[in-house]
Amino acid sequence: MKYQDTIEQADAVLQKTLGFLKQHRLPASPINYGVVYEYMTGNNEVLISVMDKVLKTGQTIDSYLMDGLFKEHILQQNEKQDAMVKDVTSIVSVTQKHANKAQKDTSNYITMLDEGLVLLDRSDLITSKQVIEKLIKVSSSMKNAQQVLVKALRQAQAKTAELQKQVEELETSRQLDQLTGLYNRSVMGQQIDVWMDNDVQNIAAIAINLDHFKQFNENYGVTIGNVILSKVAQKVKSYVSDSGLPVRTGGEEFLLLIPETNKHSAQEIAEKVRQGVEKLQFVNAKNKQKLPKVTISLGVTEYNQSLGLDGTIERANAAMRMAKATGRNRVFVD
């Protein structure tokens, strides 16, 4: 809410926000409320564009999606980013300080050198000697200043390399889902573009959804549910080579994008993934109670350039829903 908003305007946005949360069965948590309220105000153009796209494509709107939108489009720069900005500012400031001093010393040195050369006279050895001694002293000072500058530049170079590593790590962490270690949705479009640029002929898309997972969470709690979700995600990931892209697309939803793979080969991979997850065994660490088996339903299709990424994902999800509709714990090929 902007400070100039009236009470009536704020109340109108509040009612819309609560209506949206109720419509999509979202709990009124601070993050969910904050994202929807920001969307309803109409001030955050990027968030509005993303949310409109989500609504148009029928993507599942859950707390996981809201958390991602909050982090990406509302949350301000975190402390780590702030620290990096401060480090960069410090490096620039110190380096600039030494560079300015070196520039000033160099200018003085050139001036004194020019003046000294004029005063040098073979017939006046005393004056010439004094000039030479002064130039030697100035040269020594100049040398020291240059050494300080070189040291400062080396330190700046080392710190810059460290910051570059931190930036890369931060960028990687932004691309990864913290719970599962899989990539998040923001990476997919970029990866598709890379494959297209490298003339990849076939890209398989496998949509994956855990069966009855909401019921599992209700029975055993979200904490155990998150552990199960993480373990299943790692199992799913293990069937994808380094060239493939495993993505968490929703609360209990994953997507595998696999280059140079047609639907027939993707069906075989999907079946291996299904069997691998079905064989997993889970035990409650607190009471050693054996937990029920977890199964997944999978939908297989191929990337269609005319449909684009969103259309392809929707087609894979449609196939996955058919797998659920025909009995769950199975693979359906589009």
Summarize the entry for a quick read.
With 334 residues, this protein is an alpha+beta fold. It has helices at 7-23, 30-41, 45-57, 63-73, 79-119, 125-175, 188-197, 213-220, 222-237, 263-278, 308-325; strands at residues 203-210, 245-248, 253-259, 296-302, 331-333. Helix 1 crosses helix 2 (30-41) and helix 8 packs across helix 9.
Shape field:
elongated
CATH architecture group name of the largest domain: 2-Layer Sandwich
Helix and strand element order:
HHHHHHHEHHEEHEHE
Low-confidence stretches: none
Q: Major sheet: size, sense and barrel closure?
A: 5 strands, mixed
CATH homologous superfamily classification of the largest domain: Reverse transcriptase/Diguanylate cyclase domain
Explained architecture:
The protein is α+β, with helices and mostly antiparallel strands and 334 residues long. It has eleven helices and five strands. It is elongated, with a radius of gyration of 31 Å. The mean pLDDT is 82. The protein starts with 6 loop residues before the first helix and ends with a strand.
